Amino acid sequence: MARQPAFYIPHGGGPCFFMDWTPPGTWDALAAWLRRLPETLPEPPAALLVISAHWEEPVFTLATTPDPGLLFDYYGFPPHTYQLRWPAPPAPGLFPRVRALLDGAGIFLDEDPERDFDHGVFVPLLLSYPQATIPTLQLSMRHDLDPAAHLALGRALAPLRDEGVLVVGSGMSYHNMRAFRRADNLPLPDSDVFDTWLTATVTDADPARRNHALARWQAAPAARDSHPRADHLLPLMVVAGAAGDDIGQRVFACRAMGATIAAYRFG
Asked: b/e per residue, 221-240, with b = 16+ CB within 10 A?
């Protein structure tokens, strides 16, 4: 079984890939990249483990829903975007494995037997895996959004990569909703400043130095202008923790809604 990489991916805005957007073509490049993502893997993954920006709990929580549906946690979009389907099977065989890994790292784990897949999961993966045949497991972020805790979570999950599990952090490398609305698709310079720092940090040849910098991301140039709240950045911390000694690569970038947004791969 081939070792799987770990990805931090942008999931766009709401159900953006499945509706008309202004200006047209805003999300086309990202959609095309997400469709190609499976072709870049060494082999099809045994399972997907997703950490989405749209699920936070007081403690790290595993979705153990027997038959997960979709949580349409977006508002004001066309009616047909609430009819999307992505019936990926659950991954119950991974539940005890994830618990054992986190127990071994001293990380408390709760379970939610009713949680469905939020749009940070199903919107991008409808493009990457439209047949929805790969068992999929979702793990929450912790509500305190502590970077060090999420890096530690990733380190605990790292052995799953050697077991054929593709670890995916789903967020946005720039996420300032007020700035998006104000920009009206004009370039957002803060996003370029933060992107330069983020890419240099993620691609640092020294993983320890990379993770040290990520844990202190708020000191980065334009950090809080790019992420007034850290929810869309924190999935990257989990992925970087799971990366181990693998050096990050910037594997996608585009400008959407005025911002530079990027995807990163480890391994």
From this structure: ebbebbbeebbbbbbbbbbb
Q: Render pLDDT for 106-160 as a digit per residue (tens, 0 to 9).
A: 999 999 999 999 999 999 999 999 999 999 999 999 999 999 999 999 999 999 9
The pLDDT tens digits of the residues spanning 8-56 come to 999 999 999 999 999 999 999 999 999 999 999 999 999 999 999 999 9
Whole-model pTM over 0.90:
yes
- pLDDT for 1 equals 87
Rounded to a whole number of angstroms, the CA Rg of the chain reads: 17
DSSP assignment of the chain: -PPP-EEEEE--STTGGGS--SSTTTTHHHHHHHHHGGGGSSS--SEEEEEETT-EESS-EEE--SS--B-----S--GGGGS--------GGGHHHHHHHHHHTT---EEETTPPB-HHHHHHHHHH-TT--S-EEEBPEETT--HHHHHHHHHHHGGGGGGTEEEEEEE-SS--HHHHHHHTTS--HHHHHHHHHHHHHHT-S-HHHHHHHHHTGGGSTTHHHH-SSGGGTHHHHHHHHHHTTPPEEEEEEEEETTEEEEEEEE-
Task: Considering the domain delimited by 6-266, tell me its CATH architecture.
Answer: 3-Layer(aba) Sandwich (3.40)
Which residues fall within 8 angstroms of residue 13, CB to CB, at 6 or more apart? 27, 180, 256, 257
